[in-house]
Amino acid sequence: MTSPKVLVASDLDRTLIYSAAALALPLPDERAPRLLCVEVYESKPLSYMTETAAALLTELGELGDEALFVPTTTRTRQQYRRIRLPGPAPKFAICANGGHLLVDGASDPEWHTQVTERLAGECAPLAEVRDHMTATADPAWVRKHRVAEDLFAYVVVERELLPEDWVKELAVWAENRGWTVSLQGRKIYAVPKPLTKSAAMHEIARRTGADLTLAAGDSLLDADLLLAADRGWRPGHGELADVGWTAPGVTSLPERGVAAGERILREFLREVREAR
Predict the structure, then answer these.
(1) Tens digits of per-residue pLDDT, 219-232?
(2) Can you tell me whether residue 214 is helix, strand or coil?
(3) How far is residue 12 from each of residues 73, 78, 85, 141, 261, measured CA to CA in Å?
(4) How many other CB atoms sit within 10 Å of the CB of residue 81?
(5) Contact between residue 162 and residue 178 where contact means Cβ atoms under 8 Å apart
(6) What is the average pLDDT across 21-47?
(7) Where is 180: in which H helix or E strand?
(8) Strand 250-252 with 231-234, pairing
(9) In this predicted structure, what is the pLDDT of residue 164?
(10) In whole angstroms, how far apart are CA 53 and each of 29, 185, 241, 251?
(11) Which CA distances in Å does 194 have to 70, 139, 152?
């Protein structure tokens, strides 16, 4: 295929798209930006971006051979397919934190096989981690236990009831078994360390011949993606912002909520134009 000059790999939730609770609209209601719903779940609107952000993403997607936009998410394939992003349908997408590389909407079987073989050889099995989370989590504050794509586990919790030490203790336990723990909103993820968005991004860059990589993300699970890209951005909210995480080549933005999504897309477009 024709090689894009710039590969743009961006996290979605709380980076480009936002739930109603995560919008962070500090303006008076009459001055709030117009919103576009980009996800419906169980017949109800779930995720949004501003109309301005939608126009910027459309512009990015229409740059053709100059840039390749790659949605990059911890969501499962089924969860990702609920999202209707504006602009052309992406050629590639990264789902399940790098466990699935979608090409024209279909998972690449060779990539998935490589990932599962690496996980089997480098970290504790999923069943052990899932069983530990189930045994130590209190039903008083856990609402759901989930396994995603037979690759990682997460629980949905009531944040106001969640004991602060539980996440820390789980992180220490998981670290010794080759897993990472991430708290994102009401979800606590346990993900194998070799399961990374950055590995999938590098694979797409190899296939397409991209010579510049850009990335954005807000959570601990996005840190490897930001470090692997030539240039990265993180919003003023989220797990990384909460701990003051910084790195060379990564810009910490002041914007929070849906305004950060607009700023990130402006930064992507600026970099693509400069790469011309």
Answers:
(1) 999 999 999 999 99
(2) strand
(3) 6, 15, 10, 27, 9
(4) 13
(5) no
(6) 96
(7) strand 179-184
(8) parallel
(9) 83
(10) 19, 22, 21, 19
(11) 20, 30, 11
- Residue found by looking up tokens 């996440």 in the block: 167
Per the DSSP assignment, residues forming a β-bridge with 153 are: 147, 190
The C-alpha atoms of residue 100 and residue 77 are separated, in whole angstroms, by 8
Whole-model pTM: value is 0.93
81 token code pair: 């397919």
Q: Are strands 142-148 and 106-107 parallel, antiparallel or unpaired?
A: unpaired
Q: Tell me the C-alpha distance between 247 and 267, whole Å.
A: 17
Closest CA to 9 of 228, 258, 192: 228
**Pairing between β-strand 44-50 and β-strand 35-41 as defined by DSSP bridges:** antiparallel
Q: State the greatest distance between any 2 C-alpha atoms of the chain, in Å, as a whole number.
A: 56
Sort strands 67-71 and 92-95 into parallel, antiparallel or unpaired: unpaired
Helix (H, G, I), strand (E, B) or coil at 190: strand
pLDDT surpassing 80 at residue 22: yes
Which amino acid, 31?
Answer: R
Taking residues 117-124, report their average pLDDT.
Answer: 96
- Give the rounded distance of the alpha carbon of 35 from its chain centre: 21
Reading the block at residue 160, the tokens are 């106001």
> 140-198 pLDDT, tens per residue?
999 999 999 999 999 999 999 999 899 999 999 999 999 999 998 889 999 999 999 99
Give the number of other Cβ atoms within 10 Å of residue 177's Cβ.
Answer: 15
- Residues 262 and 56: their CA atoms lie apart, in Å, by 8
Residues ≥6 apart with Cβ < 8 Å to 30: none
Closest CA to 156 of 178, 133, 179, 174: 133
